[in-house]
Amino acid sequence: MSLLLAIESSCDEMAMAILKDDREFLSSVVASQIDIHALYGGVVPEIASRKHVECVSIVLKETLAKANVKMEDIDAVCVTKGPGLVGSLHVGLQVAKTLALMYHKPLIGVHHIAGHIYANLYEDDIIYPALCLVVSGGHSELVLMERPFSFKVIGETLDDAVGEAYDKVGRVLNLPYPGGPVIDKMAFAGHPTYHLPKPLDDDSYNFSFSGLKSAVINLAHNCKQRNEEINKEDLAASFQKVVVDCLVEKTVKAVKNFGVHQVMVAGGVSANKGLREKMNEAIGQLHDVKLTMPPMKCCTDNAMMIALAGKVMYDHHKFCDLSLGIKPSLDLELESIEVNE
Ligand code: KG4
Ligand code: ZN
Question: What's the pLDDT tens digit per position in 264-318?
């Protein structure tokens, strides 16, 4: 039996969870700051870290109480070490190190994106080789996993991340922050009537969303100058269609070329209904390829995902000492470890 405490604080959420053995969560708490950052139209790093300091003890107390366990019962402390916002990461890491030191617990430093990918383990095992489409506010990449906990980035965004493009388009359309979930909802109420350019339609597995984002912004500005009413739902539907088509097309191409047995989607944008539907449809047409997407509560930042990735590291004794520092930018491929299947 193992009990892991996981801490995630890389951006504007302070989250903690307790994982029993492989898949049983005794508790999961997320203290979101969305309402505060919404006032500024985006995450303000200095405010995020200050709010983390204010709420971290309460989140820890609640996580332990909900699980009905004491720190003494915990076998290891897993924490996001990067990538993310410097100040935000520091709060989570200092708490993890303090707990590890006080209670003599092993410490495990987890890569945030490895966490997003391993959120797919929430319901079922992963079959390798697998491919993961990582789409979040800071990342957009296709990751090939030939073996468990081995990461090869075969394609990535050349400019904006998908979530970032959603949020910037949301701002131009005067939608509440974060724009992603709002645009997703509006897209289902509209029709893709606006013509927008297809981003980076090439042979690579890379993405590019800044041109598309600029095209939406220009279209909105031109309409305003001409005093034309813009149909926001139709624009949302048009933007979402181009984004989703591009993500799914490149994923399907990689599935065929690398002969993977499983496709996963990860990161905040994996909550996107349009993407989930289209991915289901496209992968459903392929033979013998399993598709998994994390449950909604595991898509955006949470600590369950850090616990799931941390558990693989725990099983392989990948512990850190108290000199562990935060890494605001951190190469995913270098986090690969040798894992016995
Ligand atoms: O993974 P995440 O919680 O934080 C990062 O690691 O970046 O992702 C947050 C991003 C935001 O940009 C948010 O707008 C986007 O995920 N997002 C969505 C949806 N839900 C969250 N984007 C599109 N459709 C959604 N339903
Ligand atoms: Zn994230």
Answer: 999 999 999 999 999 999 999 999 999 999 999 999 999 999 999 999 999 999 9
Alpha carbon distance 148, 336 (integer Å):
9
Q: pTM higher than 0.85, yes or no?
A: yes
Closest CA to 122 of 261, 279, 292: 292
Cα distance between residue 88 and residue 90, in whole Å? 5
Tell me if residue 69 falls in helix, strand or coil: coil
* Alpha carbon distance 309, 298 (integer Å): 13
Pick from 97, 62, 47: nearest CA to 77: 97
From the CA of 170, give the closest atom in ligand 1.
14
Choose which residue among 32, 112, 136 to substitute to test ligand 1 binding: the one with the highest number of ligand atoms within 8 A of its C-beta. 136
In the predicted model, is pLDDT for residue 178 greater than 80?
yes
- By the CB criterion, residues less than 5 angstroms from ion ligand 2 are 136, 301
